[in-house]
Write a structure and sequence with these properties.
Structural class: mainly beta
Number of domains: 1
CATH class: Mainly Beta
Oligomer: single chain
Strand content: 35-45%
Number of helices: 2
Distance between the termini: 21 Å
Shape: globular
Largest sheet: 6 strands, mixed, barrel
Strand order of the largest sheet: 3-7-4-6-5-8
Length: 121
């Protein structure tokens, strides 16, 4: 009891339904040099991504997941899809984690990683 079960591609547990996906994960600082002239305004216009990250929330960009989707990283951290990639990345299973604008070194150190994430339904 309480063990996850798989029904129709989704895993059901007492927490939430989810499915797993292997993705490429990168990081980017919320600064004009790495985004555009409005780094705090994501595709999900109802929020300020800079404020979100400053509060310790995890925000990601993804073009293969719907805006507003929640994901769980292998570390256990829950993130929300609030932004999109440039159209040249369309179709790629990739997410980009937002870092504070002054965390350039940390974002570069994060690099590119392959991870199995949980996409929460």
């Amino acid at each position: 009891m309480g063990e996850p079960t798989n029904r129709g591609g989704f895993v059901h547990s007492k927490e939430k339904e989810y499915y797993e996906e292997t993705v490429t994960v990168t990081a980017y600082p919320l600064a004009e040099a790495f985004t555009d002239s409005t780094p705090c305004i994501p595709a999900f216009h109802t929020i300020n991504i800079c404020n979100m990250v400053a509060r310790g929330e995890c925000a990601v960009a993804s073009s293969f997941l719907p805006l507003g989707t929640y994901i769980r990283l292998p570390s256990g951290k829950i993130c929300r899809v609030v932004d999109r990639f440039n159209s040249r990345y369309k179709g790629q299973k990739k997410i980009d984690i937002a870092f504070k604008g002054n965390e350039v070194k940390q974002a570069r150190k994060f690099g590119t990683q392959e991870m199995i994430i949980k996409i929460i339904k």
